[in-house]
Amino acid sequence: xxxxxxxxxxxxxxxxxxxxxxxxxxxxxxxxxxxxxxxxxxxxxxxxxxxxxxxxxxxxxxxxxxxxxxxxxxxxxxxxxxxxxxxxxxxxxxxxxxxxxxxxxxxxxxxxxxxxxxxxxxxxxxxxxxxxxxxxxxxxxxxxxxxxxxxxxxxxxxxxxxxxxxxxxxxxxxxxxxxxxxxxxxxxxxxxxxxxxxxxxxxxxxxxxxxxxxxxxxxxxxxxxxxxxxxxxxxxxxxxxxx
Length: 243
Fold this sequence. Notes:
The chain is α+β, with helices and mostly antiparallel strands. It is globular. It is built from 8 helices and 10 strands.
């Protein structure tokens, strides 16, 4: 895949090893990213590599209503005075996700990736969930929402339970507001403990076809639409009121 808007190959052409590698190259323009997400494809690459596009088999997903809240997390939620915000500190969240951490000196969230998702946020497609302790950002996550699907990109935690609380908030709001699926991309133990499951790529793509409509993605030079112009919590509350 080269520059411009050359189409992605069919996802059935993705490699088995490395699992899900579909294409190399292209760019991180908003139009290409939206086309990729609509088809269940996402970018992930290390510094110094070309842009790599992935669609793993099977796919890690979380259904909002099936979020697993452990007894310890339930107890914590009864005592904490943390606050949840949406789309108020998107840039801070992506910077925190990109920051080096113990055992991870390098990060895949490059300056180009940050710029691309900041643009998607400006257009209304990328959203953040923010956990605040007395106005201090202690945890959060960000991703892309198209229709009934939230494509999770990354999360961070500067305090115990903070990323769990962020995902819990997204699931709680989403289950009431029409989100049918949260894409977790690749499995890990942390997400599995919170309710993540694996489904075949074909099933995942069918979920996308059923959950994303033409009106969920704007058209023309701006790519904006009335539907995506409000913060995540406002969008989902409007959907809930219409249900």
